Amino acid sequence: MARYRGARQKIARRFKEPLFGPSKSLERKPYPPGQHGRNRRSKESEYSVQLKEKQKAKYTYGLLERQFRKLFDKAARSKGVTGENLLVFLESRLDNTVFRLGIGSTRRQARQFVTHGHILVNGTVVNIPSFQMKPGDQIAVRPRSRQVDPIQESLKRNRRQYPWLEIDRKEMVGRFLDFPNREDIPENIREQLIVELYSK
Fold it and tell me: What is the mean pLDDT of the chain?
């Protein structure tokens, strides 16, 4: 299955944000990677700013270019604001939902739990990370997977709540209540720049 396997902390330093979770490298080296990282010119072109925003969204949610473009095209065809639709579709992916519920401590770990068959959607094993959730869907940890240490540890550590989700940590069962509103999505992504990039 295609996914980014390169150096994650270099990516985090490029965007000056901990896209893959807490990063000590950002504290030690708060400048972009590469031999010109410290002295790189600060002024960027409009295209560069838009491209960087798209790349940041791709790395944040763990998608490659083709997947991301397909999701953008779907968002453009849907009713409403294209940029907001895109973020809602990204947040509604199964791997991201497992991460938001706290079953996985990172999106990468959540994706692994899904592909390894640890997650049930409405009582059926779903091993496709891009599976789109719908309001009312139930997400649960498979009964025989409830003793898996990383899942138990993640549920103990992650206590953050999101208004479009609910979770019973004891039973390891969550529910996708509704599609999220833009103001509820915590990611620092300027989706309008992505729309402008693809509109060129």
Answer: 86
